[in-house]
Specification:
The chain is an all-alpha fold. Among the domains are: about 1-40; about 395-500 and about 530-545; about 630-705 and about 720-810, no CATH class. It has a two-stranded antiparallel ribbon with strand order 1-4. A hairpin with a 4-residue loop joins strand 2 (about 930) and strand 3 (about 935). It is flat. About 25% of the residues are buried. Belongs to the SCC2/Nipped-B family. It holds the Pfam family Nipped-B_C. It is found in: Nucleus. Keywords: Cell cycle, Coiled coil, Nucleus, Repeat.
């Protein structure tokens, strides 16, 4: 049947072709007949004309008519001749396939059948010009004219595309074509108007009602108005000389006289005639409804993508109030896919409309902190595109500073951040394009300023390290250009500041303006130096040739805070750069050494003193010149003075020191400790007179004996250490001073000395001092406790650097190394000191993880951010370690919150495990925080304080379930660890507000809750019955006969019956009532999760943890905005029992209290 159908279809096509050929043959015969008649008529006219002229006269009017007739006849003959040439070519296919054939013209040209002879074209042009003069060209039928123009157009295209010359003159110019068709359309409009007027006049004569007459009149006026508008358009089109010239040029280049504006107008006009166009508002309304009201995530996402495609074509749609409102609302949708689609739409809109960037930039910046990784990546892509397309946008530095913060994000986000800055900053620029390079440096300066203000320079350093450590050639070349431009910029700013200081001002306003300008220049200078510092930390070799340029900054008179910061940055750069110089001159090294020594002697701050001495040490140990560093003289002066003061205080302990002397002692203490750390003065100083001044006659080395002497790695006894021991003696003496300022400065200096020589930490006196400080709760020693931790941190950093250096040197002589000795030497004293400091004794890597987890709940965002970064690194390097101590971390988090509450003035509030979102992806309007509780009012505005911990564990299904089970087991009756009611509330808060993403997570929590409540509830009931006395007959209020309540649990749990069976000691019943709060909290938690995620009871009963992962590992379709988790009964009990007074405990002996207890148990 299929073959028969195909054959029948083919037969019909052949029949249609035969009919078409037959019709064409008949048309051709008719044309030939008419042509012969026209030729014969033409001959007769010529003959009659000659006869008439020979006879004498002929009217001018008749002669013109004859000429017009003659010209028309000739034109028809010429056109027929052209048509005869292309008789076998289908002109319809040529018209339809013109676009495809046009692309091939450049190579092959057109078919030979379409090429018209030059002589024929000349005759055609002559006849057309005659008819144009007489305005009789319109007598040619439109079909013949279109066919002729098509043939001539193909000829012109071929000539122009082949060799660029025009062999054929356009027969009908584009200008005339436009005029011709405009006039034809104008004429048709006039004819239509006449016909319209006639019909309207006829309708007025008809016997119609007045209402119908009014309708006809209204319709007539609308049609007339439309016709008038068309006439105006055509007249305006005829008057555009500029467009006529553009059409002519367009036709020369592309073979078509239509402009882009004409094409757009035609498309709009044709599209407006379609029914679909008139339904646009309806479709748009349905799309907006799907975005705002649809509950299914996939449909909301698809609707948003539909709207994105519409806005790509017409940006004005987003300016409609209902569309704009829907987009703003979906920016805070509960699902990340919808938020991503919305961000993508707004991104395309702002990239196409630069004026809208200031309006939508705050929304995009907020989404950069979104919980969805895909959303953050989409925002970064949009911001990068804005930076590339609109480099003059004023918020670009702020935008880049916000992107820098995400360099510590997920791996995918980090990679995108690196690619962004690689393309924006670390691509070489042409040496001639100085403005572009200068603009790049200015933007970098502003970004560094913002990062420095927000304490985010660590993120910028990580960015530079990730981009430059790999040694990519293009990145290094771009870095050299940037560094050179930064150095020029630094010198320019310095010159400006010097000029401003040299100009005197007379008025206070000028002084104020000059001070503000000076401050701005200082901030810019500091930002430039911060950037150079980052380069010096990552690639110090790039700054080697600028070392001598930086040296003069050491001589600056730093009095203000900003100037001191500039000086410290320069010294830090020199410390990293100068040791890399190949052959510095002796004069340079001597000048450098003396300048830094003078800075040390005049420095007043601990930071400046430390960086200066560290810089001197690095340079001197690298080159060994000069033989005796200038710092040795400063050290001798400081130590001699401190020894004299120490000896004087030993002789007169009660002597008071004046303030200038105290300040001097503080400065000297700090300097001596740092100098003794970085220089071995026992080897440098060979001055017997100095030794006589500082060494007492009965000098004794510090007692370094410990309980386990094998832990100490003693130095060789022949190595000199008298000066160092004397420094330790002085610092330890002042560490026990009665003056808090002296005690603190000496303790800081002692930390520097112990960082280099850890054996002093083994000294019993030092160990006891650290133990006393770290175990003390005295608020007067808070600063000393913090400094003790900083000293230990400095010591551990120093030990780590020693291990890194030893590892780098291992390859040089690894064949001669002994493994046992390597193990003993590699461990160092770091672990020994940590074990002695930590009260638990042996320290394992997992010991501190629980404490780190607790610190993620700190109220300070900067602390939370740094600790979460550390946990991320631990989880990356040691998989599973966080999960093993997660439950312990949850409990420690509560203990931390408890200590924070006790240290604040408001110690009465209940500790909760919920806080307001920093940047809420579901932010609601209006007041978000309830002032009575300090918590968000609704779930969309809050998050668990331990959200960061759960985010680390939720990626692995097994780890996630193990963690949730262990945390929920804390509510179980058989749990080994009995929690207080307030701690139960804290844990429940976190479980309620964890950032669940797939259905399995909340359903597993609900399933585990049901299991725990069923077991613990039954256990509580059994224990309650066990404490009751034996049953006795009693009369129920609704019964007249006595009944044994042991036979009926319903009667047992009535207040009167239960009260009658209370034992003499009711304390255990009160304790059981308190323990039952765990079940109530879990039931409230279950109901909250079901409301939050829209689960029905049937869905909960259907869930099984043993199902395959793909069944429930699906994204949660919705998260509703419900009132915040708030177990009122438990909170009320917590306030009563955890306050300073306990009225319930005082009332446990009254009859009313016992009856209330019976009522609560029954309830």
């Amino acid at each position: 049947e299929e073959e028969r159908r195909i054959a029948e279809e083919k037969r019909r096509q052949e029949e249609a072709e035969r009919r078409k050929i037959e019709e064409l043959r008949k048309v051709r015969e008719e044309q030939l007949r008419k042509q012969q008649e026209a030729q014969q008529s033409y001959k007769n006219v010529i003959k009659n004309g000659q006869s008439d002229n020979g006879n004498g006269k002929k009217s001018s009017g008749d002669g013109r008519v004859m000429a017009e007739h003659d010209s028309r006849a000739r034109l028809n003959v010429i056109i027929d001749q052209i048509f005869d040439q292309v008789e076998d070519i289908d002109m319809m296919n040529i018209e339809q396939n013109g676009k495809d054939e046009e692309g091939d013209d450049d190579d092959e040209g057109v078919s030979q059948e379409l090429l018209v002879d030059r002589a024929v074209v000349d005759d055609l042009r002559n006849e057309v010009q005659k008819l144009l003069t007489w305005k009789k060209l319109t007598t040619i039928s439109s079909d013949r004219l279109i066919k002729l123009i098509t043939i001539l157009e193909r000829n012109m295209r071929d000539v122009v595309s082949s060799d660029g010359t025009r062999l054929l003159v356009p027969i009908i110019a584009d200008d005339y074509a436009v005029r011709f068709y405009c006039c034809v359309w104008y004429k048709e409009i006039l004819e239509d108007l006449q016909e319209l007027e006639a019909r309207y006049a006829e309708s007025k004569r008809e016997n119609l009602s007045e209402k119908e007459h009014r309708k006809n009149e209204s319709r007539h006026m609308k049609k007339v108005k439309r016709a008038q508008a068309q006439k105006i358009f055509l007249i305006d089109l005829l008057g555009r000389k500029k467009d006529r010239q553009r059409r002519y040029e367009n036709a020369k280049r592309f073979g078509s006289s239509m402009l882009e504006s004409d094409v757009a107008w035609c498309i709009k006009y044709l599209a407006a005639k379609r029914e679909f166009t008139h339904s646009f508002d309806s479709f748009l309304k349905q799309i907006v409804t799907g975005i705002t009201s649809e509950s299914t995530v996939s449909l909301r996402t698809k609707a948003m993508r539909c709207l994105t495609q519409i806005i790509e074509s017409d940006q004005s749609v987003l300016l409609m109030p209902e569309v704009s409102s829907a987009a703003h609302n979906r920016m805070t949708d509960s699902n990340a896919a919808v938020r991503e689609a919305t961000v993508e739409m707004i991104g395309k809109f702002v990239v196409a409309n630069s004026d809208a960037i200031p309006t939508y930039y705050p929304l995009l910046a907020e989404r950069l902190m979104d919980t969805g990784v895909a959303v953050r990546k989409r925002v970064i892509r949009i911001m990068r595109e804005i930076c590339e397309k609109f480099p003059n946008f004023e918020q670009i530095p702020t935008m880049l500073a916000q992107i820098v913060r995400r360099v510590q994000d997920e791996d995918g986000v980090k990679k995108l951040v690196l690619e962004t800055f690689q393309s924006l900053w670390f691509q070489p620029v042409s040496e001639r394009n100085t403005p572009a390079l200068l603009k790049k440096v200015i933007v970098m300066t502003k970004v560094i300023q913002i990062c420095a203000e927000e304490m985010k320079l660590e993120a910028m350093e990580l960015l530079f390290h990730s981009l430059l450590k790999q040694g990519d050639r293009s990145s290094l070349a771009a870095s050299r250009q940037i560094i050179d431009m930064f150095m020029d910029n630094v010198l320019t700013i310095e010159n400006k500041m010097a000029t401003e200081n040299g100009v005197s001002t007379n008025t206070s306003n000028d002084d104020l303006t000059g001070a503000e300008l000076h401050k701005a220049n200082q901030e810019r200078l500091l930002a430039c130096l911060n950037t150079l510092t980052l380069f010096s930390k990552v690639r110090p070799e790039l700054l080697v040739r600028h070392a001598e340029t930086l040296q003069p900054y050491l001589s600056m008179n730093a009095t203000q805070k900003s100037e001191v910061m500039v000086l410290n940055e320069v010294i830090g750069m020199l410390e990293r750069v100068v040791p890399l110089m190949s052959h510095p001159s002796d004069a340079f090294l001597t000048t450098q050494d003396q300048t830094l020594a003078n800075l040390t002697a005049n420095a007043s701050g601990v930071t400046t003193t430390t960086v200066t001495i560290s810089c001197m040490s690095a340079i001197w140990h690298r080159f060994g010149r000069p033989e005796v560093p200038a710092i040795a003289a400063v050290f001798k002066t400081y130590l001699e003075y401190l020894v004299r003061v120490k000896n004087g205080l030993k002789m007169m302990p009660n002597r008071e020191l004046d303030n200038p002397k105290v300040l001097r002692i503080q400065r000297f203490l700090c300097g001596v400790g740092v100098m003794a750390r970085y220089f071995d003065f026992d080897s440098i100083i060979k001055d017997p007179e100095f030794e006589k001044k500082i060494f007492p006659a009965n000098a004794v080395r510090p007692d370094l004996s410990l309980s386990n002497a094998e832990d100490i790695n003693h130095e060789e006894p022949e190595k000199p250490r008298r000066i160092r021991d004397n420094v330790f003696d002085v610092l330890f003496f002042f560490s026990s001073s009665n003056l808090p300022t002296l005690r603190f400065k000496a303790f800081v200096a002692l930390g520097h000395l112990c960082a280099k020589y850890p054996e002093y930490l083994m000294c019993r006196d030092v160990k006891d001092m650290y133990h006393v400080l770290l175990s003390s709760d005295d608020p007067n020693f808070t600063q000393m406790r913090l400094q003790a931790l900083q000293n230990l941190e400095e010591f551990l950093k120093s030990e780590e650097l020693k291990l890194i250096k030893g590892d780098q040197n291992f390859g040089k002589g690894k064949e001669q190394e002994n493994l046992k000795e390597m193990d003993q030497a590699g461990s160092g004293l770091g672990s020994t000191v940590a074990n002695l400091t930590y009260s638990q004794g042996l320290v394992t890597p997992g010991t501190s993880i629980a404490t780190l987890i607790a610190m993620t709940t700190d109220p300070l965002p900067i602390v939370r951010s740094r600790v979460e970064g550390m946990l991320k690194d631990i989880d990356t390097k040691y998989a599973g370690m966080i999960q093993s101590t997660a439950t312990q971390g949850v409990r420690k988090a509560y203990q931390l919150q408890l200590q924070i509450r006790e240290s604040t003035s408001n110690g009465e509030h209940i500790i909760r495990g919920i806080r307001a979102c920093d940047v809420s992806p579901y932010a609601t309007t209006g007041a978000r925080i309830d002032p009575s509780t300090g918590l968000p009012r609704h779930s969309n505005d809050g998050q668990a304080v331990l959200s960061g911990l759960y985010q680390r564990l939720r990626t692995n299904r097994q780890q996630r379930r193990s963690f949730l089970t262990s945390v929920l087991r804390l509510f179980s009756e058989d749990s080994r660890e009995k929690l207080r009611l307030e701690e139960w509330i804290f844990v429940a808060d976190n479980i309620a507000m964890f950032p669940y993403q797939v259905m399995d997570e909340p359903l597993y929590v609900i399933h585990t809750i049901d299991s725990i409540v069923s077991l613990s509830g039954q256990s509580l009931l059994i224990q309650c019955k066990a404490h009751l006395r034996a049953g006795q007959p009693y009369y129920s209020p609704v019964q007249q006969a006595p009944k044994n309540q042991l036979e009926d649990d319903d009667l047992l749990f009535e207040p009167e019956a239960l009260y009658n069976r209370f034992p003499e000691e009711k304390g255990p019943l009160y304790d059981l009532m308190d323990n039952s709060q765990a079940c109530f909290i879990l039931l409230y938690l279950k109901n909250f999760l079901m409301k939050l995620y829209g689960f029905t009871e049937a869905k909960v009963q259907e869930y099984s943890p043993s199902e395959a992962a793909k069944v429930y590992e699906k994204a949660l379709s919705s998260r509703k905005n419900v009132p915040m988790f708030n177990p009122l009964a438990a909170l009320d009990g917590g306030r009563r029992r955890d306050g300073h007074t306990d009225p319930v405990a005082n009332d446990r002996q009254s009859i009313q209290s016992h009856f209330n207890l019976a009522t609560k148990i029954c309830n």
